[in-house]
Amino acid sequence: MSIANWPAGERPREKLLLRGVEALSDAELLAIFLRTGTAGKSAVDIGRELLERFGSLTALCAASESDLCVQRGVGQSKYVQLQASMEIARRALKERLASGNVLGSPTEVRNFLRLTLQALPYEAFVALFLDSQNRVLQVEELFRGTLTQTSVYPREVVKRTLTHNAGGVIFAHNHPSGVAEPSNADKVLTEALVQALRLIDVRVLDHFIVAGSNVISFAERGLI
After folding, report:
1. Coil, strand, or helix at residue 122?
2. What is the spatial distance between Cα 86 and Cα 90, in angstroms, rounded to a whole number?
3. Running DSSP on this structure, what letter comes out for residue 38?
4. CB 3 within 8 A of CB 43
5. Which end of the chain, C or N, has fewer beta carbons within 10 A?
6. Per-residue model confidence (pLDDT) at position 126
7. What is the pLDDT along the chain (224 residues), one digit of tens a residue?
8. Which pLDDT score is estimated for 94?
9. Residue 10 near residue 25 (C-beta atoms within 8 A)
10. Which residues of 9-35 are buried (b: 16+ CB within 10 A; e: fewer)?
11. How far is residue 4 from each of residues 7, 15, 144, measured CA to CA in Å?
12. 35 torsion bin: left (phi>0), alpha (psi -120 to 50), beta (else)
């Protein structure tokens, strides 16, 4: 049955307007994004099939164009719209972080890092350079690949920190394996960066590890 023939309170768009976006299921949110279904399938049905195929919203948002467009009812235009939607969310969060003290917005920091790193198929190391008021000046991916003390160079990190005239730094990297726990190499690297930046009177506020939907804080673990 077409969504247009559903009771008004069960249609995703009307449900959102009546009860708020939080009331919608993942499949219903996808239905609003997809807008239309196909012969014999509603947009909600296609949303459910996508979630079943990819396993989660995270995996769906990280899917390649070729993998996503295998699904009937999803073409290149929907892939482009999805990528644009993700980038809008990242930029909106970045703007919020730039306008306030990041230490007062731990949830927004986590959400930004999750959106930025969780879908990457490779390991990436990023830095959030902060001003004296702990507002984000710039976000940069500094290194990618297997991260060790020999592949992430403290000298280069110091150079970028001075370039931005940053007063503080937050580091983050992802674990594509999905294991969020910091490795011994992660701990050694973090300590090396803390020591290097201390020489120029710049404080490392935190180091986050993003693994899927999990975000681990070194500061909360007492590792910084």
Report:
1. coil
2. 6
3. B
4. yes
5. N
6. 95
7. 466 657 656 788 888 888 888 888 888 888 888 877 777 788 888 888 888 888 888 778 878 888 888 877 788 888 888 888 888 888 888 887 777 777 777 888 888 898 889 878 888 999 999 999 999 999 999 988 765 544 778 899 999 999 999 999 999 999 988 888 898 988 999 999 999 999 999 999 999 999 888 899 999 999 88
8. 82
9. no
10. eebbeebbeeeeeeebeebbbbbbbbe
11. 8, 13, 47
12. left
Closest CA relative to residue 142, chosen from 178, 181, 188, 193: 193
DSSP letter at 41 equals B
SS3 130: strand
- C-alpha count within 13 angstroms, C-beta hemisphere, residue 91: 6
Looking at residue 5, its pLDDT comes to: 58
The predicted pLDDT at position 146 comes to 64
* Tokens matching residue 141: 């991916």
Q: How many residues does the chain have?
A: 224
- The DSSP code sequence of 141-209 is EEEESS--TTTS-HHHHHHHHHHTT-SEEEEEEE-TTS--SPPHHHHHHHHHHHHHHHTTT-EEEEEEE
Residue whose entry in the numeric block shows the structure tokens 């991260």: 147
Return d(Cα 164, Cα 47) in angstroms, integer. Answer: 43
- Tell me what pLDDT residue 118 has: 84
Amino acid at position 59, single letter? A
Rounded Cα–Cα distance for residues 44 and 128 (Å): 38
Which residues are CB-contacts of 178 (< 8 A; sequence separation ≥ 6)? Answer: 211, 212
Beta bridge partners of 174: 210
How big is the CA angle at 164 (ends 160 and 167), to the nearest 5 degrees? 100
